[in-house]
Every structure is written in C-alpha cells, then in structure tokens.
Amino acid sequence: QVQLVESGGGLVQPGGSLRLSCVASGSIVSINYMGWYRQAPGKEREFVATITSGGISNYADSVKGRFTISRDNAKSAVFLQMNSLKPEDTAVYYCNADLRAYRGGGVYYNRAYWGQGTQVAVSS
User: Fold this and answer.
1) Chain-centre distance for alpha carbon 88
2) How far apart are CA 122 and CA 104, in angstroms?
3) Which among 28, 51, 57, 59 has most CB atoms closer than 10 A?
4) Neighbouring residues of 54: CB distance < 8 A, sequence distance ≥ 6
5) pLDDT tens digit string along 1-58?
C-alpha cells in the first residue's frame, strides 16, 4: 500500500516562513509529478505548485515568488518552502503524487495519491 505523509504545518505570523515536507512510501516504482494543493475553510481545494521528476516546477500565481517547491527523488519526498506568508495562505495543505506502483503478482498500476493534509495558519 502506498502512503503520503505530510509534516511541517503550524501557526506563523504574517511575513513568516514554514517548510512543508511530504514523504511517499510503499511499493512505489516511479513518481512522475509531486505537488501541493490547499483548501481554505469554505473553499474548494486549489493548486499551489507541482514539480516533475526532472525538476520542472509550476506555481499558482498567488504564490509565485514566495513559495518554492523541491523534491528528493531518492527519498520519494517533496518539499514546499513558504516565505512571506499572508493570512490568505491559511489552509490545509495536501501533498499529491502521481506514481506507478507494484500491486503484486506481476501487476503494476498508475494512480494519484493524496496525503492526509497539514494545517497552516497565518495570523498575528
């Protein structure tokens, strides 16, 4: 079974920084995209950033210049460095991975997985 586990959320003042981490584990063969999404109270889940296995990244306009996504392919991990945080960044942040895994019995499959989410609160 594949699992994504996030960490690093918390409460921070406006202008502060946080670093989120997400590690994928299980019978993973390869990971294509890894990324971060967020969901604020009363709103739909929205895209934050993604990164390919080759290191090509993409960001939502709202976080460009403030957030940086990176990954460690050897550790099946993705990170989100968040600087200059604003109250509107408050949300539950979810890790996402589009990967290929081994089910057993010679069976492989492709699927996107989500982490359980980590809360980020930006407030004075």
Assistant:
1) 18
2) 44
3) 51
4) none
5) 899 999 999 999 999 999 999 999 999 999 999 999 999 999 999 999 999 999 999 9
Q: Measuring CA to CA, how many Å separate 91 from each of 8, 24, 67, 115?
A: 13, 21, 15, 14
**CA gap 123, 108 in Å, rounded:** 45
SS in 3 state form for 5-57? EEECCEEECCCCCEEEEEEEECCEEEEEEEEEEEECCCCCCEEEEEECCCCCE
Question: How many other CB atoms are there within 10 angstroms of residue 32's CB atom?
Answer: 14
Residues in the chain: 124
User: What is the per-residue pLDDT across 88-103, written as a single tens digit (0 to 9) for each?
Assistant: 999 999 999 999 999 9
